[in-house]
Specification:
Order of helices and strands: HH
Strand content: under 5%
Number of domains: 2
Structural class: mainly alpha
C-alpha cells in the first residue's frame, strides 16, 4: 500500500513538472512568435525601402543618360514588371 502511494506521488510530481514545462514552453513560443512578427515587419519595411532606393537610382541613371547595354536591359525588365503589376491592380479594381 505504501509503495503504491509512493508511485502515485511520484507520478503526480512528474505530471506537475510536465505541466510547468508546458506552460513555460507556451510562453516562450508566444514570445518567439511576437519576435518573428516584428522581424518580419522590419524585413518588409527594409525591402520596401530598398525598392524605393532602387527606383530612385534608376531614375538618376536614366536622367544622366549614362546607361550601358546591361543596365538598359535590366531597367527595361524592371519597367515591364512594374507595368504587369499595374495591369494586375487595374484588373482587380475592375472586377
Amino acid at each position: 500500500m505504501v509503495e503504491l502511494d509512493l508511485q502515485i506521488k511520484s507520478i503526480q510530481d512528474k505530471l506537475q513538472l510536465l505541466v510547468k514545462q508546458h506552460q513555460f514552453l507556451q510562453k516562450e513560443n508566444g514570445k518567439l512568435k511576437k519576435e518573428l512578427e516584428k522581424a518580419s515587419l522590419l524585413n518588409t519595411e527594409k525591402e520596401q525601402s530598398l525598392q524605393t532606393l532602387q527606383q530612385q537610382l534608376d531614375v538618376l541613371k536614366l536622367g544622366s543618360g549614362n546607361l550601358d547595354q546591361a543596365e538598359k536591359l535590366a531597367l527595361s525588365k524592371r519597367i515591364d514588371a512594374y507595368l504587369k503589376e499595374i495591369d494586375k491592380c487595374l484588373a482587380l479594381l475592375n472586377t
